[in-house]
């Protein structure tokens, strides 16, 4: 069991893709012979309108094989569509175009051509094959581009939605960061206001204390200041008084 799982994972890891042009050079697949292993993919690119990629058997050329893949008739829009088929094993795969007379005209190819059954033998037998009505049902592969599978469209829509959501989320986060940054200065200013007020108040108080003398200091200064020395007329009157007192004292002694 584990061996088969390992081999499946290994084959997927080393899977290759083979590109095939449909109608690029007339009623042909280019290349018309390829070799592929299980897990590889065949990507058919529609170069001109009204072609199909339809699987058949070697023994019944130009007839849709039951359970085989089919792209239906593809009308090429401005953007060229593709039809992708995943190879399941190494068995031969016969492919033809189901548009009227295309298979009978040699529009066929083979994957893993076996010995004894060549593409040329298939094309030779196809010339006499009855025309089969083309089956419009897409099966066994993925039709991409315009008119592609709904799975591809859904996947694209989901991817677009996720991208839009991611962009919206990034825009919202940016707005939140910008809002936080714009509010930070206001908070910082608000927080620093009390400190500034306290500092200013303290400086005012200190300045007031240093530059404005108190009432007690003024009183002390007044008391300790000596009286002014008399000058002019006051000084002359004092001299006369002293002279008079001296004369009176001298008279008493006599």
Provide key terms for this protein.
rod-shaped; 9 strands; 5-stranded mixed beta sheet; signal; Immunoglobulin-like; Ser-rich/MCO-related; 254 residues; Cupredoxin; alpha+beta; 4-stranded mixed beta sheet
What does this structure look like?
- The chain is α+β, with helices and mostly antiparallel strands and 254 residues long.
- The protein has a domain at 2-146: Sandwich (Immunoglobulin-like).
- The chain has five helices and nine strands; from the N terminus they run αββββββββαβααα.
- It has helices spanning 2-13, 119-126, 150-211, 215-224, 233-253; strands at 17-22, 29-30, 33-34, 41-46, 54-56, 82-86, 93-96, 108-111, 142-144.
- The strands form two sheets. A five-stranded mixed beta sheet has the order 2-1-4-6-9, with no helix packed on it. A four-stranded mixed beta sheet has the order 3-8-7-5, with helices on one face.
- Strand 1 (17-22) and strand 2 (29-30) form a beta hairpin.
- The protein is rod-shaped and about 180 Å long.
- 18% of the residues are buried.
- Mean pLDDT is 72; it is low at 146-171 and 183-224.
Briefly say what this structure is.
With 254 residues, the chain is α+β, with helices and mostly antiparallel strands. The protein has helices spanning 2-13, 119-126, 150-211, 215-224, 233-253, and strands at 17-22, 29-30, 33-34, 41-46, 54-56, 82-86, 93-96, 108-111, 142-144.
């Amino acid at each position: 069991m584990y061996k088969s799982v390992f081999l499946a994972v290994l084959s997927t890891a080393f899977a290759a893709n083979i590109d095939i042009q449909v109608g690029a050079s007339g009623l042909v697949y280019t290349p018309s012979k390829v070799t592929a292993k299980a897990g590889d993919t065949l990507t058919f690119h529609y170069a001109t309108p009204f072609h199909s990629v339809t699987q058949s058997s070697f023994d019944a050329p130009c007839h849709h094989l039951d359970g085989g893949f089919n792209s239906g008739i593809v009308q090429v829009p401005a953007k060229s569509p593709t039809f992708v088929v995943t190879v399941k094993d190494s068995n031969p795969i016969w492919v033809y175009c189901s548009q009227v007379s295309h298979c009978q005209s040699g529009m066929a190819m083979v994957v893993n051509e076996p010995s004894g059954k060549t593409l040329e033998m298939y094309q030779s037998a196809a010339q006499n094959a009855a025309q089969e009505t083309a089956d419009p049902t897409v099966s066994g592969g993925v039709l991409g581009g315009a008119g592609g599978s709904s799975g591809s469209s859904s996947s694209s829509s989901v991817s677009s939605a996720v991208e839009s959501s991611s962009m919206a989320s990034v825009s919202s986060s940016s707005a939140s960061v910008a809002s936080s940054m714009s509010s930070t200065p206001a908070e910082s200013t608000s927080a620093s206001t009390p400190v500034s007020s306290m500092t200013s108040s303290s400086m005012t108080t200190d300045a007031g204390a240093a530059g404005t003398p108190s009432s007690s200091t003024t009183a002390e200064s007044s008391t300790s200041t000596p009286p002014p020395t008399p000058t002019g007329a006051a000084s002359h009157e004092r001299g006369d008084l002293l002279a008079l007192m001296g004369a009176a004292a001298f008279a008493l002694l006599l």
